[in-house]
Protein 1
Amino acid sequence: MLKSKNTFTSYFLIFIIILIGYWQVSFLVYGLKWDLIDVVLPFRYYFSESIQSGHFPFWNPFQQTGTPFFADLQAPTYYPELIITSLLGGYGIYTMHVLFIIYLLIAATGMYKLSFHFNKCRYASMIAGLAYAFSGYIIGHGQHFFLLVGAAWIPFVILYYIKLNQEKRLINSLKSGVFIFLMVTGSYQALSIVMLYLLVLIFFYFLISTLLERKTRDVLQIIKLNIYASIIIMLLCLPLIISTFEILDSTGRLSEGIGLEKTLAFGQPYTTFLSFILPFSTLKYNELFGNIDLSMINHYVGLIPLVFFILSLFRKHSILEYLILVFGLVIFAMSFDFLPVRAFMYHYIPLMDSFLYGAYLRIYGLMAIILFAANYFAHFQKDITKNKIKPILISILLLIVLLLLTVASIDGFSDKNFDYKNIKSLLTNLTFHQSVVIQATFQSLILAGLIAVIAFHKKIRYPRLVIILLLTVEVVAAAQLNMHATVINTKHKATKMQADLSLCPENFPIPIDDKIIFNDSQHAFFKPFWRNTYIFTKQISFNSFSSFGLNTYNKLDEYTGLKNAVLDNHLFYFSDSILALNNLYNKATDDSIFSKQLYFRDTDYKRLSDIKVKTDSTDNYQILDFAPNKVTIQTSTKHSQFLTMLQTNYKGWKAYIDNKPVPIYTSNFNYRTILLPEGKHVVKYKYENDKILVSYILSNVIFIICIIFLLGHWLYYRKKGSKAHIYIPLALLITMALLTIKNFSYKKKYKTVHEFYDARYPSENAAFTKKLDFETVKNNNNSSLAFSGNKSLVVNPETKIVPIIKLVQKNNRIKPGTLKVTAKIYTKSYCKVLIVSKISKKWHANKIERQIEELNQWNEVIYVRKIPKMNDGEILKVHLWNLNKSKFRVDNISVELFEE
């Protein structure tokens, strides 16, 4: 019981330190940044949107004009976190903050347990857990969530695989299988590849050592338990394995790997070793560190652990410990361009040519360093008096190094950039030399404190705890100095980001059917959201920020003229002009290509060229239903012709006309084209993949059984005599079942985006409503504004700004909430007009061209924005900004404010 209580206390202290050390994330002060917002969140968000709408996310229609989401390895479709989070409410900014902290806790706990397995010292294990959770790898890769996930599971995989071979218990086969599954499905694939080699080495170590001891029965037991673990892993990873083999021939990156020159270009110079003692220095002076991404050059593990690691090299360890250290350091060496390790591994080790950044794998080296440091501390703390001289000497040597660095940088130190009243500005504007002096001074104090504690340990009641406290202060301070650069975005509050994200339409309403070419990155969403934002707004786009791309999609990028012509269409379009691809090869950049022109492979062209087709201006279609894996439209055409859908023609998609299957042809390298008969028809596109769906369900069922069993097993031995091992797993199982039923039960569906917003923000609930009085606008004596017979406003090319409303805050009349602006636009051309809202000097805009579905008819447009708390005298303005001097008509303008 005492051991259990001490362990709980250690975990609790680690939890509190992480919570405080990452307070900007823990307490939602600032938003997370870069790839975590641009890649990780959008993909997870899309998964949860699909699940909560009752769809398995086979297909993502919003990126790359359609991509097989289930086969994209950077979208961890088969990782349990996604389905669990989706059932619990889905992804958002707050969710990612919570998950960020959870994975830090998992990482620290795993490192604590791995360390304790070797040294049986909770003080040493606390040092290991804290050093790991605040390491330069974690801080540097704050945006790379897949690396954080990998770092969280690595210690658990190593620990339970060692236990599997040491203790030879079936329960450890199950634990190893589950943790390996979590790592393989949730983390960066290269981390799993490297882990495979480490596990093979550990396996042969135990196999050979057992054979040398002539324990034949134990050898057979080790082999048997490894087979069991392999079977568990294969069953859990089955959908991932199937989807990977299915996509191999469709994407070049998986089949061809990464070029050596490209990966060597990201090698680091030896100067990045400076980060072991001064990680703050890596944020400046790029030339010194080889102009490498600053996330990859932070190797910090803490000065105090570094002291004990250096000492550990002079003490004997077990063969297993040396195996982990040597392996980790070899992998770590792949980060550096002055070493031949990366090139050697690339040429001679299978799968080492499949990833770009060697530095992404350095966690194995840092983990080994931390483990050795903790193991030596466990030895040191048993008799501090006997062991105190060596750590004091090493600390003095490091103090001398820090002093030399301070002296070398003092000439470049100046307080002219110092803004003591603004910490954020101070951290951003410091020079390299200032960074060195500031952190070197602080680190010197830490080392001096360590020397004092060791030297006078007899006068200190709890010297071990004081050293842990020193380490805590050190690693938290180091993390805070680098946090603004690689983890958090100090310009944007997490609460505002969540509020802006909440404006997006839920589920899968019929998207606004604008031209795809208009859905670019400009004015796509609210800052700092930048890339992949059409997943949030539910519009089709060609661009995406992703390392995954089908060969057919990438091929279209080689023909910019054709690409621009194709994207100058709506989601569906009619054609009667076709050519063979051979006619295209000599005019890759030709901008004169007709937007309705279709290019087919020779075999398809020969089959289709003799068919009589003709388009007519009266031809039309209407989208009846839109979902990730099924789209239904109704068409009305005067003649037979070709119907093209701007979605990738990936294997597995089927087309039906009036419920009868018809062939889909690939046009323009990438898109779905069918032959459409004349008259009125219902056309349906559908994707099904029973292999993936069945294997996914099987994987999740097996995973749930494993978790329920492991939980019951743990409770049984923890609380013998009680029924907790039955009741708690049963309650968990019932809860999961109820959440699944709740999420997959019928939900109200909104037919269009406009209907969704009308339902979310009904006019009767508005705190303020105003219809635009056109006579008021007319009294402005702006001759470029005119009125049609039905009172609509005609905007002439001379008009730059069309004011809609101006509200002045007074006595808190304008409450925080949501601004909703609706209108109707009539235009004969795709006019570049913005709806703009402005509060003081902060403005936001949205392109009207993204909402024009048809020329020469009235189009509904909508604009929504969160309104923050406004101070007295602040002004809220809404207007139209006529960017390219267009002529259009506007009518039925309505401005509504909804309080929070």
Protein 2
Amino acid sequence: MQPFTRISGSAAPLLAANIDTDVIMPKQFLKGIDRQGLDRGLFFDLRFVPSGEPNPDFILNQPAWSDAAFLVVGANFGCGSSREHAVWGLKQMGIRALIGTSFAGIFYDNCQRNGVLAIQLTGVQLKRVAEVISVAATARISVDLPAQTIELADGSVIPFEIDQLRKQALLSGLDAIGTTLQRAEQIRAFESRHLAANPWLA
């Protein structure tokens, strides 16, 4: 995975509550045998009108937010089914972090496993961030994971909390397998000791 340290970019407001994974990645985009092309499916029914043309009213189709690196989202974002494709699509679209007050549990874990930072703020903090980034001229922010801060265009700084194991994995660009392999020598040493003590296992 790509490590997450300090990233700057525009942040798009998508503040409706309970946006589920079927909205994020509709079911017709789950048929592939690999992860390719999921950026096309991301928010498909919101991004496009029935004719297939981009919906000019959707935030990610508007110039100030078309290359957004961050989404500022409503409560319980990512609820619904556990489809990991939703996170894969966000990542392919260039979304590096989600900023909200709460996320569905499995979706939150899927973000972690795929290098997307999910930041949980208080309602007051989120309201402040949303006010600033909803204006095109001040939509650009910086997220500093080592410092655990969000820096807004008006100069204000919003701190956030994160589990330290999740933080270290994101900083190092490690998924669960990569994190486990950091202890490969210890694992091999345990296997050798265990087989020596229990030779019948071999």
Protein 3
Amino acid sequence: MSLEMTAGELTAFLNREFPQVAGEFTIEDLDEMRIRTRLRVGDAHLRPGGTVSGPSIFALADVTVYLAILAMIGPRALAVTTNCSIDFMRKPAARTDLIAECRLLKLGRVLAVGEVLIFSENGADPVARASLTYSIPPRSGG
């Protein structure tokens, strides 16, 4: 398998199809079946105490797997999350960007499974681990 979309193409796709999150996520590295992204943490991502909220961590995991899949299959906007499990393991560093490292474990015709480790920037230990399953629409579906 080879990449069907570059980091630049994925960023343009995300900005076009999901303008509500435009600029929040950055692709830092992309390879076959792997991607590393960054959530640029702002005030909207914080919960009391200045740490990143659980919903923001979920969004990072979800977007990261979505982009990893699209990188491999091309621009199919209607790929959707069908399952997600997250282990919140440590409190993220206050007001610090989060980095997600994803690898796709399975990329089939109709389902994809990805695993994500999320770190505070410059942190050695993950703050969260997520496993996500996506449903991939037929080629004619978008």
Protein 4
Amino acid sequence: MSRKTKISLPEADLIQAIRQKQRIGSEALYDMYSASLYGVIIRVVQNQELAEDLLQEAFIKIWNSFDSYDEKKGRLFTWMVNLTRNLSVDKIRSKDFRNNSKNQDIENSVITIDEQRNSSLNPDLFGVREMVNKLKPEVKAVLDLIYFKGYTQVEASEELGIPLGTVKTRVRLAIISLRKLFN
């Protein structure tokens, strides 16, 4: 039996349903956040098949580690995005991923590139890119590397040729600015 309507719950009800391991919680979680989390993953891994696998892995990790989520420390969406992004970055840094990437044949590469160009999910649909574009150029450059391309703060520091402390300060300023735009 397939569902036709998507389930949406207020955040407090969703959190309660997930904590109680109710089926409606898992269904609403997927319906409400799968597109956004897929967008985060595809930006990092840039491979549709891998992104789909990681999305499933991310939801399992969210479900199984939900006890570590603390509403007092931040919003549910922020916690899930960070968990998902970290999972994606860990995957592309893994030895297994690097070895498989080196062994990919040219036909698969062409198909992958073609699929990426035709991808319909993109942060612009959620307004994230628009909000980031409102930030100062130096802050935007750091966010582009860290959140949209999966760089670490150290890698962003090296790429931009600026001190690590400056990268951390710009990330903090960006978060503060984006919070103001969200509220």
